[in-house]
């Protein structure tokens, strides 16, 4: 039995996209971020990242968490790599070399990109984009992102996808981290290959199915 704890408006979306692609039967147990609740510890609060029951699975109090035949796994990108390998098929690494590259790109996106793309999303969510301070922060964040985005653009000059010349879990992991940055619509203007690749990732039925559920889920 495969259970994913989380919700569509969280990093669980990465695993939910992958699960749409690989068609693995699973149960989604809805866990909401504590910061979204007035009193997450109230007796009638929905299951959330501070609930004692959930903290037994995630001492960090973070979603997503995967429970898979007794394996408890946190970290969205590790969850995706595990699910892809378990399911086999074209999204999974075909060999050790591809696995190494998929791990490389997951760590690359998590360490070089995610903090700054997430900061862009949060800045827009706070409505700060048109203030002077907001504009300066956008310039600072996009400045920091220039180096890893240029590296991805250069990679896509010689490759159709992140790994293996086909759509894989490495594309999902990278695309989901980049998506946070798209709150700032001009982010990829200087990176046409990256923009096109992201567009193609988002045109997939698996992403569109996940996104429909994302949009239907109350925040
Ligand atoms: N590196 C972790 C980060 C997990 C994380 O921070 N999740 C957020 C939601 S996207 C969370 O659960 N925050 C807890 C809270 O806001 O209470 C991963 O990729 O899974």
Automatic annotation (TrEMBL):
| Limits of the GST C-terminal domain | 95-219
Keyword vocabulary terms for this entry = Transferase
Q: Which SUPFAM superfamilies match?
A: GST C-terminal domain-like (SSF47616), Thioredoxin-like (SSF52833)
GO MF terms held by the record: transferase activity
Domain (GST N-terminal): give its ranges. Answer: 1-91
Q: Which Pfam families does its entry note?
A: GST_C (PF00043), GST_N_2 (PF13409)
Xref: InterPro entries? Glutathione-S-Trfase_C-like (IPR010987), Glutathione-S-Trfase_C_sf (IPR036282), Glutathione_S-Trfase (IPR040079), Glutathione_S-Trfase_N (IPR004045), GST_C (IPR004046), Thioredoxin-like_sf (IPR036249)
- Full protein name: Glutathione S-transferase
Species of the source: Thioclava dalianensis
């Amino acid at each position: 039995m495969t259970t994913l704890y989380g919700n569509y408006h969280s990093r669980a979306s990465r695993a939910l996209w992958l699960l749409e692609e690989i068609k693995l039967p699973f149960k989604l147990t809805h866990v909401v971020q504590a910061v979204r609740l007035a009193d997450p510890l109230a007796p009638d609060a929905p299951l959330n990242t501070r609930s004692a029951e959930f903290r037994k699975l995630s001492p960090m109090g973070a979603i997503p968490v995967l429970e898979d035949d007794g394996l408890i796994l946190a970290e969205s990108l590790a969850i995706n790599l595990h699910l892809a390998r378990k399911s086999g098929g074209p999204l999974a690494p075909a060999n050790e070399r591809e696995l190494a590259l998929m791990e490389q790109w997951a760590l690359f996106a998590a360490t070089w990109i995610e903090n700054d793309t997430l900061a862009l999303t949060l800045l827009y969510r706070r409505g700060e984009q048109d203030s002077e301070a907001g504009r300066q922060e956008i310039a600072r964040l996009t400045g920091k992102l220039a180096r890893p985005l240029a590296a991805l653009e250069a990679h896509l000059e010689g490759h159709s996808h992140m790994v293996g010349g086909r759509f894989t879990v490495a594309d999902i992991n990278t695309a989901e981290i980049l998506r946070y940055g798209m709150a700032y619509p001009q982010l990829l203007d200087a990176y046409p290959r990256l923009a096109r690749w992201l567009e193609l990732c988002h045109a997939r039925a698996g992403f569109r199915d996940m996104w429909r559920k994302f949009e239907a889920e109350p925040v």
